[in-house]
Write a structure and sequence with these properties.
Chain A is mainly alpha-helical. Chain A contains twelve helices and seven strands. Classes of the chains: A mainly alpha, B mainly alpha. Chains A and B meet through helix 2, helix 4, helix 5, helix 10 and helix 11 of A and helix 2, helix 11, helix 12, helix 13 and helix 16 of B.
Chain lengths: 396, 426
């Protein structure tokens, strides 16, 4: 036995050029070498070309003056490119913070509609999904912006002003907003203190309830405490909660005061929400169909209404399946918000386009842009992972 | 009541019949009822709430239908499509400069359609479940309405006849693909590749630089097709690299895929227009704007194709690879002969989905000033006879119909292929 084994395993080591362990590493180093050389050549070309055309090779251009206007940016006379990037970043954030909740809500409704046992409700859901997802989102943006918003909003000279504090016109929709003279930081600080106090009151009432058996009424107590905090904040920050109405400026061509929502923003957000909702609806439908049929039947057996069945039994389980694909749709809405550049809503990609048009180095600008989107996608992944962990089944 | 252990009434509708014994309550209402009345009752008027929903949504559908009908047949001024510019929408404004004859273009289209027909015919599977009537109607009816709408804008009968001919070629291709003898079938990939190249050659008159003069729908389709076919090898290599056990190569693939997927396409297109020239050697010939766009779209699409193929690779059971190892095959042979054929077959439907989304994404070229299907609208509306007369809704409706017809029919075809290939059911 031992003799045979020794004969088979005689140390006839293969030559190194046929040894898999050696070849693996040779192959990998070769590939990395080729890729590295190619990247080095590209980098070298870039540096040479940038220097030849007199463009900066570093990131110092961020401090330069931006020579383009950003509507809505305060003291728009002069600002640095860095500040322009920041304004664009905030504008992108504005789209996705509003867009994501709206498209989720609409998508869930449409997705549930597609599973209704009423034929017409199902038909409306199906038509919605098929119409919206089979037409490019850019066309939807053009349609909402040009056809719906611009053609149907009244001219600024014939503006509609409901309650004397709103303005509806093609230069934007002005809504009353909080007092701009108030100190936002002070106010938010008091709101934060109020929230902490609410949590404290909650804990105290629960303890009282457990020890004495009195009704806890934590909601009521918490509400009162929060109102008090709001009131203190309101006065401490200098009438923060009094609002400033939105009116037409004296030259009759601008909206003053309050907050002005620009038509491109409205058009972009509506289009993105409608388009993304059709994708979300398909995800919702698929996730609900993936839930075991017995769950719905059990809910029916204990006589829950249709609403209760979805709210308490089906949707909580479906959300667990939905989260990863939903997160990727949220990333899509973030990336698609870059199409604002076509209707001149100034968000981060639009800034990038303007910066590169303006004889500043495109390569560095692109790196900054990638970094900005990286923060968005990391943020969305973090939130998605948090919910994923919270909702995942406790394995026993 | 309900002594026979049947489902209690009220659960499946029929509320208010609690006093009637089950036996008297005609056929039990399970699943679809029989006859037109039964179907209507089960689907539309099961109980009060259901009936209210029916009336409400019926009103909505009726309203939208009337509005659409009114717009399409009465208010819309379709002369912005049929009164001259239709050619622009289809092939762009500079197509004549290429000197490519329309006969050549149609020959190219027919070749491409034949390849598509053979491809679908190859996927035909006798055992696949038959389609339901409703799905079949939607699959044929939807695109048919779109095609009739588009063709109604033509002024001669020739395009209609040629389109009908294309339908015939599709059918012939399907039959060919279905009846292929195994010897040919084994090499069908090469046949499809050759046909595709021939089609591309015929469309561009065998000089790819002609693409720079393309526009409209033709440019959209050519760019999307070039993008997806060029990105296919990139995607396969990246997917294999990402799933490989090489510790040095894997991060390269992961970096490429995640970096590209992390940024919007439009920023890459901007880079293609403004920044890519910095990456070429100083004395190099910089390709034209459309080619630069194709380069960036290929890079972009490659990352997404890689993820699709990775999904296909993951769907191959580990036993397949182990069996290959047991036979003493080399890792390369296992990948080439065992893993890839199955993985690619499983990823075909998702690849079609990728092509659809690329077709929609090509509309972004309008932002960098190219005149593809969406960009050509501006060109048409700038013509003196249409300028500033509010023709925008009509033009967008027409372009939207073209996109919808293409994307809808392809997505249905992909769904059908998925059931035929049995992806995920084996």
């Amino acid at each position: 036995m031992t003799v045979v084994e020794q004969e088979i395993h005689t140390p006839t080591k293969p030559p190194f050029y046929r040894d898999v362990r050696v070849l693996r590493w040779v192959f990998q180093f070769a590939v990395v070498g080729v890729v590295g050389y190619a990247l080095y050549r590209l980098y070298d070309n870039a540096i040479t070309n940038l220097e030849d055309s007199g463009l900066p090779t570093g990131f110092d251009f961020l401090g330069n003056q931006a020579r383009f206007a950003i509507p809505g940016l305060a003291d728009s006379a002069d600002y640095s490119i860095r500040k322009a990037y920041w304004a664009g970043y905030l504008n992108t954030l504005r789209v996705i913070v509003i867009g994501i909740p709206l498209c989720t809500a609409l998508g869930v409704v449409i997705g549930v509609m597609r599973l209704s046992d009423n034929m017409l409700v199902r038909a409306v859901g199906t038509i919605y999904v098929e119409v919206f997802r089979n037409i490019p989102v850019l066309l939807w943006i053009f349609i909402t912006y040009l056809v719906i918003i611009l053609l149907n909003l009244p001219q600024i000279s014939e503006e509609v002003t409901p309650f004397d504090s709103f303005v509806i016109s093609n230069r934007g929709i002005g809504i009353p907003w909080f007092n701009p003279d108030a100190s936002l930081l002070t106010f938010l600080g008091f709101v934060g203190i109020g929230l902490i106090a609410v949590v404290g009151v909650n804990l105290w009432r629960r303890k009282v309830n457990e020890e004495t058996g009195q009704p806890s009424r934590s909601g009521l107590y918490g509400f009162i405490v929060f109102l008090i905090a709001l009131a203190i904040g309101h006065y401490a920050a200098g009438n923060a909660l009094s609002y400033e109405p939105s009116v037409i400026a004296e030259n009759g061509r601008q909206i003053e005061g309050g907050m002005n929502i620009f038509p491109p923003y409205i058009g972009l957000t509506i289009a993105l929400v409608l388009y993304t909702a059709s994708h979300v609806a398909e995800i919702v439908r698929g996730s609900i169909q993936a839930i075991h049929k017995g769950q719905a039947e059990a809910a029916q057996a204990i006589a829950l209404s249709t609403f209760q069945r979805y709210r308490f039994i089906i949707l909580p389980q479906a959300f667990r399946i939905m989260i990863p694909p939903l997160a990727s749709q949220y990333l899509n809405i973030t990336k698609n918000s870059s199409l604002a550049v076509a209707i001149s809503y100034v968000e981060i990609t639009s800034i990038f386009g303007r910066v590169t048009n303006n004889a500043t180095p495109a390569l560095q600008a692109l790196i900054i842009l990638m970094f900005c989107y990286l923060t968005f996608s990391l943020g969305i992944s973090l939130i998605a992972n948090y919910f994923n962990r919270r909702l995942s089944l406790e394995s026993r | 009541m309900a002594q026979d252990g049947q489902t209690p009434p009220g659960l499946y509708g029929g509320g208010g019949h609690m006093h009637t014994p089950i036996a008297a309550d005609a056929p039990p209402r399970r699943g679809a009822g029989t006859g037109v009345r039964g179907v209507l009752r089960d689907n539309l008027f099961k109980d009060t709430k259901n009936s209210i929903l029916t009336v409400l949504f019926g009103a909505v559908i009726l309203f939208v239908l009337i509005k659409t009908f009114n717009y399409v047949f009465i208010t819309a001024r379709w002369e912005v499509i049929y009164n001259g510019p239709l050619e622009f929408y289809m092939v762009g404004k500079d197509f004549r400069r290429t000197g490519i004859s329309y006969e050549m273009l149609w020959a190219g289209i027919y070749t491409a359609v034949l390849a598509m027909g053979i491809g679908t015919g190859l996927g035909y599977n006798e055992e696949s479940p038959p389609m339901r009537l409703g799905a079949r109607l939607a699959m044929i009816g939807g695109p048919l309405v779109g095609i009739v709408f588009i063709l109604s804008m033509t002024r001669t009968i020739t395009p209609t006849l040629l389109t009908a001919g294309a339908g015939g070629v599709l059918w012939v291709g399907g039959q060919l693909g279905r009846r292929m003898p195994p010897v040919v079938r084994r090499r069908s990939g090469w046949i499809l590749l050759a046909l595709t190249f021939l089609a591309f050659g015929l469309i561009t008159n065998f000089t790819p630089s002609n693409i720079d003069e393309f526009g409209g729908l033709l440019l959209t389709i050519v760019v999307a097709f070039a993008g997806v076919s060029l990105s296919f090898p990139v995607g396969v290599i990246m997917a294999l690299a990402r799933r490989s056990t090489f510790p040095l190569i894997r991060p390269l693939a992961v970096g490429y895929i995640e970096l590209i997927r992390g940024v919007p396409l439009i920023s890459l297109l901007f880079m293609g227009q403004f920044a890519i020239r910095f990456l070429f050697p100083p004395d190099a010939n910089i390709p034209g704007p459309i080619f630069r766009a194709i380069i960036m779209i290929t890079l972009f699409s490659g990352a997404y194709v890689a993820e699709v193929v990775r999904g296909g690779l993951q769907s191959v059971p580990a036993g397949q690879i182990e069996a290959g190892k047991a036979l003493g095959l080399s890792p390369f042979t296992i990948t080439r002969q065992i893993v890839l054929p199955q993985a690619l077959r499983n990823s075909i439907p998702a690849l079609i989905g990728q092509f659809i989304s690329l077709l929609k994404d090509v509309s972004l070229l309008v932002i960098i000033g190219l005149q593809e299907l969406l960009g050509i609208v501006d060109v048409v509306l700038a013509r003196p006879e249409f300028v500033n007369q509010g023709y925008v809704p009509e033009a967008y409706a027409f372009v939207g119909t073209i996109y919808w017809t293409l994307c809808f029919s392809m997505s249905r075809a992909a769904q059908r292929l998925e059931t035929r290939l049995g992806v995920g059911t084996r």
